[in-house]
Amino acid sequence: MTEVYLGLGSNIEPRMEYLKNAAKKLNAHQEIRVKEKSSVYITKPYGYQKQDDFLNAVLLIDTTLKAEDLLKNIMQIEKEMGRTREKEWGPRKIDIDILFYNQLQYESDDLIIPHPEITKRAFVMVPLLEIEKAKHLKIAEKTIKEWLQELNYSSQDIRLYSKFPDLKSD
User: Fold this and answer.
1) Neighbour-count burial of 18, counting CB atoms closer than 10 A to its CB (0-12 exposed, 13-18 middle, 19+ buried)
2) pLDDT bucket at 71, cuts 50 / 70 / 90
3) Of 5, 42, 92, 150, which residue is the least packed, with the fewest Cβ within 10 Å?
């Protein structure tokens, strides 16, 4: 099994349901198991600002899927949940990003691992750091915590929203 960190985001209601349903769909796949879930954070939009705030979280999963196959499954889940790609960094029902795939460094036309924007996004790093194993992850010889300390962000940009919903309840 390979450990993979996924970033989840939604800013179209019902945001929390979209996060929960995405996690449930991932966990329902025979080659994916959700191991840990961060809390859910409410965050200001990144990039395009004229949209509602996002709910963001990070999942740690185990998978036997190769990185490209995992990406295909993620894109299928996004499509099933009604994700459309009309505007870069625009509103979305669900967004699922592969942040880390074990310690793999990988680049193809469709996928870059680690995700190239992690070090610019507090809304990814804050929930990522909640997961104990993630505290040891490095990008360019710096830990996630060190990268986060370099960012200019405030508690107004990212705030604790709630615990991640239980995947067993409806």
Assistant:
1) buried
2) very high
3) 150
